[in-house]
């Protein structure tokens, strides 16, 4: 196993490619992947034939728009109709080393190389000398194995812990002098709380320096707690198992997650499949490039995000996704922009004067119109200023302007009325 020099800041040369080189690289790998999959994975042949597209028609990332998106439900149906892999496998079945099972059940194979996971651990500072506790399950799901191998690729020693057994995890972490945690933020929080209940001083009795999270978003308040109160440097990664693993990861600047060049990652309008530009909210759609044995093209994750192509001070040149803003079903489209329920809620409720809100999406003269109704805790506040402040923040974060803000009497909205209410009629 090749362990990189401990001084290397980057995992590989791909991380610092110029924009032109990246475009060329992704286009080339994509064309190779499509033509190989078309030959070897029956599902990909069906996909292209149905769309009337020849492999040679997919030369660039933009060309992917010619193909439909395959979602989890589609994959499940494909597999049920053609067990076990639904025609996605592009290798002889007897050569498959490991089969993983995701909820569904959906059957997946171990990617031929797990190097790209290592990239996210490397950016989080995992190196030889680290003792990393892997609290993801090694049963059924690929998480345990894949993260394990990624950590090994960076040179770290891996403690095969899996999920659960909080008391035992605390003991293991102390006795093995574990320096790195790999798991979900909520589980690390549980472990820390339990350690304190058991009378331990987390900073003195445990040795944990860094934590790598995926599977859940890390709330800023929890990140602050881990970093400021316990001196644990925290990193997040975005991973989806169906197309084969990790897709984006944080660097030490922790301002969005860099996209991995082992995938073509698109942010698309979930209804049309068209690619969106920087700052626009859409669904994350991933095509894994390097595992030629798994022909899953344009996998729709159902997660909503946006991306920025602004340079990052870390020197990595890949675009960054700005975190997961919600799930596809949780969004409404207003004047061509997706508004994610959770994001709208966080934005509006960050104003402490607001007791309840309802965002009504209607139509006026064939144009979508948004009216924000507010119940206030104290109606004596400067309502004009508050309305303006909320609208400005909403526009910054959700990238669309509210047409009108109305303060309504208490009880108008009611407990069940809070949220986005779409009253448009599609006739
Ligand atoms: Zn960076």
Give the DSSP E fraction (strand runs of 2 or more residues): 15-25%
SSE-based structural type: alpha/beta
Q: Report how far apart the termini are.
A: 61 Å
Tell me the overall shape.
globular
List of distinct ligands in this structure: zinc ion
Backbone CA Rg: 23 Å
| Helix-residue proportion | 25-40%
Largest sheet: 9 strands, mixed
Number of helices: 11
Which spans of ≥5 residues are poorly predicted at pLDDT below 50? none
Q: What is the oligomeric state here?
A: single chain
User: What is the number of beta strands?
Assistant: 22
Indicate the mean pLDDT.
Answer: 92
Strand order of the largest sheet: 5-4-6-7-8-9-10-15-14
Give the helices and strands, then pairings.
Blueprint: H1 19-40, H2 42-51, E1 70-71, H3 72-81, E2 99-102, E3 106-109, H4 115-123, E4 131-134, H5 143-153, E5 157-160, H6 166-175, E6 180-183, H7 185-197, H8 202-205, E7 210-213, H9 220-230, E8 233-240, E9 245-249, E10 257-259, E11 263-268, E12 282-288, E13 299-305, E14 307-308, E15 320-321, E16 326-327, E17 331-334, E18 337-340, H10 341-349, E19 354-364, E20 367-376, H11 383-398, E21 404-407, E22 419-422
Parallel strand pairs: 1-13, 4-5, 4-6, 6-7, 7-8, 19-22, 20-21
Antiparallel strand pairs: 2-3, 8-9, 9-10, 10-15, 11-12, 12-13, 13-16, 14-15, 17-18, 19-20
Helix pairs in contact: 1-2, 4-5, 6-7, 10-11
The structure holds zinc ion.
